[in-house]
Design a protein that fits this description.
The protein is mostly beta strands and about 750 residues long. It contains 5 helices and 40 strands.
Length: about 750
């Protein structure tokens, strides 16, 4: 990569000869396979003498030089790029930042791309007094991460995966807190409310534009919940300035096959579109466990006037992720002879159908005012029919199967969100305020065959599956949840060095259940106050304090004995630093935090027959990340987290006291490292490792799942400018590991596998 100027980020348009993209940054407009973008950074770009520019152009190859000359000519001709009139040097040309990128080797920490993960003010991570991460689609594609969950844990800082079919395969641990109640999941800014602890959408990364992550309490942005953090998956959007057309075909081991198509661009001066569809299937890596999925996302944008636009979008997914519920342990250990055995029944079923439709409006009635409005409708139809419990019987040498579960989830969510962002300059200071409201109505039915009776016995080494058998479904959960919220965010930029960022949100929820019949209300007030200090332009020091709220149990399937409880409360203190160095070739972040959650259910220490909301859970830790461009063709990205979670006060029965113990599924250490090397013209090699420390399988801390390290690798060949061929190897060392499971059975991860992807842009 050759760079003129300082640090910048990019909008990427057009393929390069080495399989990456031409990325030209500066000031101007889109032209012929290049993008010129004015990027706000914390210091003005330096001026460059023409002779210096020509020296750089002479040092790069012909095909890059042509694109650079086009860029240079356009910028020189553009009034935006012209030298300021007060300049005394007639030969100097103010270019901003120009980056010519042939073989893409990664995008780094992306500290300068605006994000709504940490506020509603469209701040960059550098400007936000919180731990904010942005994972762009190009990084996901380069690392062959087809699954959204895989992209989240292998790129982000401090997140571990603990998904299972029962929670939709989407459960994470962040900052010592686990599950959908503590880690909020969103799609395009809309919160996905978990029904019976389950979220199933989205899962395919093909239609994803980026993933934005906030580490730490998120209630001030998205309402009750999210003490550990929030994850927002943002789909690809209509393109108004250029066109995108691409197709990917996949073949791999275990019968992997797939095809994906994407297209976006302007239809005329007023209309623009996007369309992405992906279909995948596999025979599965263990017995009788085929998988298949179909995912679609499309949008149409209508620019009614210069100041008003409407966007109608729809997404749909039909996912059958496999029916594997775990492998039984022998005396708490895994017998590798049954690594590929499936102990489920022959007529097993796991299938999730999700749909999401939204209408967005954006209006700028004045230069300093922006109004945004979003109306959405979400549906989820989920079905399970499986034998989920497997326990090795030491006396018979066989496996006892139990927990015959058949479930259907029927969820509908209708909501609306409107906010206004106003920019003013009181006393010469830049002040930005966003104020708005959010309303939702969620209907949820859980129909099942509870009390989940049934028992069978199968051979340990060669289990005969059998069938599920006759069963009757009844509705045992039928709730309607009405929610509304009022929120405000504000940033006051006192001067070039100091900024204050704060937020406040009030939430009200009313849960009505049919049987047992009850109606109950919950209220919460969440807030955050943060300070950002820039001692020099490339360094941001920050501190923040926040208050949050979280329910006990699941709000949509609230138990009768929880209806009179209050929401738990949490507080966090966090300090950190974000900075760029090595002339913009490296970025780094470091954060330290402490979170305390109160009002957990716990027994009274003076009378353990009485249960009160007096429990306390806490977590403290460090998170660090660094992205380094060692050379123009070699890049390394690393991140890691050290976390110390514990129950401070958690008496569960007259004889059981978990105080001082670590919550289940909360590893103390999580780390990632990725390297990318463009070692020859048209060739790029990539490799990465994901490490998760051991985790307890229950709150009593008597059994653990071992630590593991996954290594993935890839080799890319770009025979033409618009074509790449990728060989991807997953779990290169064929590590046997478990990411979830309890004391008697684990859900094992996939063994070594490989795929070959052909990606063509046209």
């Amino acid at each position: 990569m050759n760079t003129l100027g300082g640090v910048s980020d990019a909008v990427t348009i057009g393929p390069s000869a080495r399989g990456g993209e031409w990325r030209v940054y500066g000031d101007g407009e889109v032209i012929a396979g290049a993008t010129f973008v004015r990027k706000p950074f914390h210091s003005p770009p330096p001026r460059r003498d023409v002779s210096e520019i020509l020296f750089v152009l002479a040092s790069i190859s012909n095909h890059r030089r042509n694109a650079a000359l086009i860029a240079l000519a356009s910028i020189i001709a553009s009034p935006l790029a012209a030298q300021p009139s007060e300049s005394k040097d007639a030969n100097a040309i103010w270019l901003g930042t120009i980056t010519l990128d042939g073989a893409s080797v990664g995008s780094g920490l992306d500290l300068q791309t605006p994000s709504n993960a940490g506020s509603r003010l469209d701040l960059t991570p550098f400007e936000t007094p919180a731990s904010v991460q942005v994972i762009d689609s190009e990084t996901i594609r380069q690392r062959a991460q087809r699954d959204v969950n895989q992209a989240i844990v292998q790129n982000s800082t401090g997140i571990s995966f603990h998904g299972s079919p029962g929670n939709g395969g989407t459960s994470f641990s962040m900052r010592g807190f686990t599950g959908h109640g503590s880690v909020t999941r969103l799609y395009d800014g809309t919160r996905l409310y978990p029904g019976s602890g389950t979220v199933t959408f989205p899962f395919d990364s093909w239609s994803v534009d980026r993933i934005e992550i906030l580490n730490g309490p998120a209630s001030v942005l998205y309402g009750e919940g999210g003490v550990g953090g929030a994850i927002n998956i943002i789909p690809k959007k209509p393109l108004t300035d250029y066109s995108r057309n691409e197709i990917r075909t996949t073949l791999g081991t275990d019968g992997q096959r797939g095809v994906a198509f994407g297209s976006a661009g302007p239809l005329n001066e007023a209309l623009a579109y996007s369309f992405d569809i992906s279909g995948n299937a596999s025979d599965g890596w263990l017995d009788r466990n085929p998988t298949s999925s179909l995912s679609f996302s499309g949008a149409l944008r209508w620019q009614l006037t210069d100041d008003l636009s409407l966007t109608l979008s729809h997404a749909y997914s039909d996912n059958q992720p496999g029916t594997y519920f775990g492998t039984p342990l022998v005396d708490g250990k895994l017998d590798t002879r049954v690594r590929y055995r499936n102990y489920n029944v022959a007529d097993d079923l796991v299938r999730f159908k999700d749909g999401y439709t939204q209408l967005q409006a954006e209006w700028r009635p004045a230069d300093n005012i922006t109004l945004k409005s979003n109306t959405y409708y979400l549906t989820s139809d989920r079905n399970w029919r499986n034998v989920e419990g497997y326990k090795f019987n030491t006396e018979s040498g066989k496996v006892d199967r139990s927990v015959y579960i058949a479930i259907n989830h029927d969820l509908e969510q209708v909501g609306h969100r409107t906010d206004a962002t106003i920019t003013t300059t009181p006393g010469g200071m830049e002040n930005t305020t966003t104020i708005g409201f959010d309303v939702n109505r969620i209907s949820f039915k859980n129909t099942n065959n509870s009390p989940y009776e049934g028992y069978s016995e199968v051979d340990f080494l060669n289990p005969e599956p059998g069938v599920f058998g006759p069963h009757t479904l009844t509705t045992n959960t039928d709730t309607t949840t009405n929610q509304y919220a009022l929120f405000v965010d504000n940033r006051l930029k006192v001067n070039d060095q100091w900024a204050v960022v704060g937020g406040l949100r009030y939430d009200h929820l009313r849960v009505s259940r049919v049987a047992p019949a009850f109606t109950t209300d919950f209220d919460s007030l969440s807030w955050r106050l943060g300070l950002v200090y820039n001692p020099v332009p490339d360094v941001a020091l920050y501190a923040q304090y926040s208050r949050a709220a979280e329910p006990i149990g699941n709000m949509l399937s609230l138990r009768d004995d929880y209806k009179d409880l209050k929401l738990t409360t949490a507080r966090q203190a966090e300090v950190g630093v974000k900075f760029a160095f090595l002339d913009g070739r490296a970025d780094a972040t470091l954060a330290a935090y402490r979170i305390v959650k109160n009002d957990l259910l716990a027994r009274d220490p003076d009378d353990r027959s009485v249960t009160n909301q007096i429990g306390q859970q806490s977590s403290k830790g460090l998170e660090a990340a660094i992205g380094l461009e060692v050379t123009p063709s070699l890049r390394i990205d690393m991140n890691g987290a050290l976390v110390s979670p514990r129950y401070d006060d958690y008496i569960q029965s007259e004889t059981t006291d978990y105080s001082g113990r670590r919550p289940a599924n909360t590893p103390r250490r999580v780390a990632n490292i990725w390297g990318s090397w463009g070692f020859a013209e048209g060739w790029t090699a990539r490799a990465g490792a994901h490490y998760v420390a051991e985790a307890y399988t229950s709150d009593n801390n008597l059994t653990t799942r071992p630590s593991y390290t996954l290594v993935n690798a890839g080799l890319q060949w770009a025979p033409r400018e618009n074509m790449t061929l990728d060989l991807n190897i997953y779990n290169l060392t064929d590590r046997i590991y478990a990411s979830s499971g309890g004391a008697t059975q684990w859900l094992l991860g996939a063994p070594r596998s490989a795929s070959l992807d052909l990606h063509i842009r046209f």
